[in-house]
Amino acid sequence: MELKLILQIVGFTLGLLYLWLEYRANIYLWLVGLVMPVVHGTLYFQTGLYADFGMNVYYFLASVYGWLVWRNAPKTEKGGGISRTPARRWPMIAAAYAAIHLFIYWVLVTFTNSTVPFWDSLTTSLSIVGMWMLSRKYLEQWFVWFVVNLVTVGLYFYKEIPLTALLYTIYLTMSLAGYFRWRRMMRRQMRG
């Protein structure tokens, strides 16, 4: 079996497990998040998605960070701790996204043979923001993932990695389901 297909199958399986754990706001998502970037990073490098490859280095480090933040949350937050993104954070989030997108785009155009530098840098920069928001258990992180997943589906079909595109189609649907589940969890924690 071709390595590209094996990586897609393993990545698909890990991705479903990760998504299920994220949907349930389960801390073990971060442990899966330590393995998944190795698999997807290898796949993306082979297909010339260099920003997505680099993104997986960040995903690995973000998983370590997320694990530590969630593990060390006050006991009252371990079952919840979900909140809305504070309004004062949005300008910082937008500025971080813009700066990261421009930097990654410049790197891709200047130093790689990427055929999709704008889209690759868009999904990567939004993913960086989304992972940070996830580590903080901000409800709106699901909207960021919705946009990432929507663009990624098209990008991965274009790059001829259809099984991974299918995984992101599932992610796209689960972005909405995750938002509604987390919102219910947040409301329950506020009442109780």
UniProtKB/TrEMBL annotation:
Highest taxon above the source species:
Bacteria
Give the keywords, sorted: Cell membrane, Membrane, Transmembrane, Transmembrane helix, Transport
Q: What is this protein called?
A: Nicotinamide riboside transporter PnuC
Can you say where in the cell this protein is located? Cell membrane
Q: Gene symbol?
A: pnuC
Q: Does the keyword Ion transport apply?
A: no
Recorded GO cellular component terms are: plasma membrane
The residue stretches assigned to a coiled coil in this entry are none
- Its topology with respect to the membrane? Multi-pass membrane protein
Task: Decide whether keyword Transport is in the record.
Answer: yes
Q: Which Pfam families match?
A: NMN_transporter (PF04973)
One GO molecular-function entry: nicotinamide riboside transmembrane transporter activity
Transmembrane region positions?
A: 6-21, 28-47, 53-70, 90-111, 117-135, 142-159, 165-182
Hey, which family's this protein in?
Belongs to the nicotinamide ribonucleoside (NR) uptake permease (TC 4.B.1) family.
What does this protein's UniProt record list under function? Required for nicotinamide riboside transport across the inner membrane.
The species is Alistipes putredinis DSM 17216
